[in-house]
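step 4 of 6: structure.
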Amino acid sequence: MISVADLTKVYRMGDEDVPALAGVSLEIGRGEYVAVIGPSGSGKSTLMNILGGLDRPTSGSYRFEGEEVGEFDDDQLAGFRRRRIGFVFQSFQLLPRLTALQNVELPMIYAGAAPAERRARARELLERVGLGSRMGHRPTQLSGGQQQRVAIARSLANRPDLLLADEPTGALDTHTGEEVLKLFHELNADGLTLAIVTHDPDVANEAHRRVAFRDGLIVSDERSAA
Amino acid sequence: MRFVELIRFALGAIVAHPMRSGLTSLGVVIGVAAVVMMTAIGLGAQQRVTSAISGLGSNLIIVSPSFQRGPVSQGAGAGMSLRDSDAEAIARQVEDVAAVAPAVTTRAQLAADGANWNTRIDGVTPDYLVARDLVIARGRMFDEREARQGKKVIVVGPTVARELWGDTDPIGRRIRVRSVPFEVIGVLESKGNAGLGQDQDDVALAPLQAVRSRLVGRRFRGDTIQTMYVKSLDADSLDRVQEDVTNLLRETHRIRPGEEDDFQTQNMASILATMQAAVATFTVFLAAVAAVSLVVGGVGIMNIMLVSVTERTREIGLRMALGAKRSDVLIQFALESVALSMAGGLIGLTIGVLGALGVARLADWPAAVPPWAAPLALGFSMVVGLVFGAYPSWRAARLDPIEALRRE
């Protein structure tokens, strides 16, 4: 599904060029569950941003289902994110003004879904993540674990091909973190492709494949026997 | 992405901070209210000028002796170039003339039944009523014969009647005008208080010959007139009558081609047009001053929108991550600014209309809120919202989603 070849990303900081990715090649197949690990500044977040269509590579190729994403313009990237990608963030990134239900509806609004249709889908997703009784609550009325589950429901709204999670358990305690990981497992079992950035070994061990970064390069890529 | 949804996003953000939104709109509220009020007051002034000037008589040409021009005084006899014979000639020779009314005017003290009043006395002929669109309310006007003979009868305006006799009927009463006795034979109908600060009812009419010989004194030759009111049959013939009158007078006064007239003619229609243009200029000036506050209101909106974009950077980043196009973000924020501005415009329009009506009531000023005030106010506030929302919206749309999401 994903084919990355010799990808580089260079940031300009003042007068200096800082390389974040120094030539990365990676294949991710449909249905895989990948953990991307490595110290901060190793380039793993940069890769995730490029995979998610939030950033463009400086050079190299990023093909998604055969399409060269690296050559998309802004609007095409927006469409790519909307249709193909679901994001889960460390800090949940829910809009505080909106209820859980409205937060889950948001991506579907941008996709142009009819109100009745997207409401039904949002309910279904919130029930799936175990928040059927909290749909009218605002983020401030929910615990961290519940907020992250709302965010996961939101990431699934437009039936993405790839779910990208950046330290999804980083702001949660161990117990609620485990609940979130369990949810990821179920989603992956249903066929969803997952890529999770983490530096928590316990989280990484939940995945079926671990890709380790250092200084902008992949230093190891191992699969568990799962 | 549907436009309706973007409108809902925009309104949602406005409703989320009612206090801030209200204060942001306040500048536009004040600006629009000021523009509406100033326009209404200016148009009221225009109506007032129109009714005041048309109150002088319609289709009217006023002929008067030339004022001296140039550094050299022209001495005795100047300003007395019009004679009875001129009026007669015009009445005889110019076509489409409804009335020719020669007149002399003076101010005099009136005394009757123990009361005193100082007023304007016009020495006129019966045609004066036709020329000036005056109507007799009670009694009668003196006729041609009385006018020619200089009979000492007088027709008074309602103000004079009230001041001298109160509610008592003045017909048949005796009145002394500068100690010359006159008999009151009629009272004019009120013209209303539509004058330019002048009470048009504060006047008395007496036969031309009587006023000339008894009141204005020896300064005048026996057949001199000060003003001649020429009324044309209708508005279409007004300009032609004015031209014919001018030509005729030049001929009878033996003014050679190239020489300046010793009289002047004023067409009421052109005076009205000039006055209206002056008031319109004034109105535009007032509205322009008021519009400055509208601009200040727009700057207020821009200021808050910039703050709002900064505050909601993460929201913008998130919306982009969820698939919002840059244009979606741009339109959302532009709509927010337009909605704020138009809400202010609507409230300002209401306040402006009420304010204009209030001023009209308190200051006895005609309220003239034009029908186009509403679309204009809303249109203007929309433009203000668009113009001053453009930069903040552009800033929002230009954000880098990664940076935006990372912002705390």
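step 5 of 6: annotate
 - The two ends of chain B are 28 Å apart (CA to CA).
 - Residues 73-77 of chain B have pLDDT under 50 and may be disordered.
step 6 of 6: archive
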